[in-house]
Amino acid sequence: MADGDKFDVKAFAVELRKDIEQNRIKLPTLPAISLEALIVVNDAGSSMKDVARIIGKDTSMAARLVRYANSPLYRGMENVTSVRAAITRIGIEAVKHAILSLAMRDVFTTGIETIQERMESLWKHSVEVASISALLAGQFRHLNQEEAMLAGLIHDVGVIPILIKAKDMPEVLDTEGLLDKLIRVLHMSVGKFMLTHWNFDSALIDVAASHDKLDRVSESGQVDYVDIVQVANILCYENHQQHRYAKVNLERLPAAHRVGMERIAALQEHGREATGSVLVAAIG
C-alpha cells in the first residue's frame, strides 16, 4: 500500500470487534492455574493453606510469587522462601492482585515472530508504568499499591488483539506508521472489551478504557487509578523524544494536578532508580 491514509481504519475496527465477538481471533487468556487460584482466593471459606496448595501446583507461578514477596514493596529483614511465607508477607487480601499481576506475563507472551518484538516492548513498557504507578499510589491512603501495579500492567492490554490481527496483514505491517495509528485509535476500546470479558474490577476496566484521555475529568474529584496510570505513562516517555507524550506538559494535565505536582517532582528527583526494580525482579 503506497499511502497509509487509504486504509480504512473504521472497517478494520468493525472487523476486529466481530472477530473478537465471534471467537475468530485467538485472544490471550489468563493461565488456568491463575483462574483456579483466584476462585480459591475469592472463596470466603478458603484458608491460606488452600491458596498455597493451588499456587504450589505451578512451580513457575510459585517461584514468581516468592520473588514478588521479596521485591522492594514487601521486602522484610529476611527473604521468604516458600509460597505460604510469601502469602503471609503479602497478605491474603493482596494475593488476588498479585496472582493477576504475575499472570500478565503469560498474556504478553507470543510465539508469533512478526509481532514478538512489539509484544516484548509492550511488556517492558507496561512493567515500567506499573512500577511508577505503585510508587505513586503508595502516597494515597485510599489507593492500593498492588491494584495500581496491576492497573499499570493492563493499561495497554488492548494492543495485543490488534497486533494479532495485523500479523497477517502486510498492508498494515509494511505501511509506515499505520500500525501505530490503529493502536492509538483502537486500543482503549479493545482493552475495555477484554477486561470486561475477563470480569476485572470496574476500576481497572476504566484504566484500560480511559488512560489516554488526557482531558478526562474525575467524577469524584479524587485521584484514582486512571490518574495514577496517566501520570506514570507520561513519565515513562520523558526521554522518548519520538513519542507524542514526550511533549506533554504535566503542568497542564488535570490528572497530574490531582496526583500533585510536588509528589511527581519528588518521584522524578528521588524515586526513578527504585522504579525499575519494584516489579522487574518479581515478574519481568
Write the layout of secondary structure elements.
Elements: H1 9-21, H2 32-42, H3 48-56, H4 59-69, H5 83-90, H6 92-107, H7 113-137, H8 145-154, H9 159-166, H10 170-173, H11 178-197, H12 202-210, H13 225-236, H14 254-259, H15 261-283
Helix pairs in contact: 2-3, 2-6, 3-5, 4-5, 4-6, 4-15, 6-8, 7-8, 7-9, 7-13, 7-15, 8-13, 9-11, 11-12
**Corresponding CATH architecture of the largest domain:** Orthogonal Bundle
Major sheet details: none
Q: Mean pLDDT, as a whole number?
A: 85
CATH class of the largest domain: Mainly Alpha
Distance between the termini: 37 Å
- Count the helices. How many? 15
Question: Which fold name is given in CATH as the topology of the largest domain?
Answer: Hypothetical protein af1432
Strand runs, count: 0
Q: Please, what is the CATH homologous superfamily of the largest domain? A: Hypothetical protein af1432
Task: Point out poorly predicted stretches.
Answer: none
Q: Helix/strand/pairing class, anyone? A: mainly alpha
Number of domains: 2
Radius of gyration (Å): 19 Å
What series of H and E elements makes up the topology? HHHHHHHHHHHHHHH
The coarse overall form would be globular
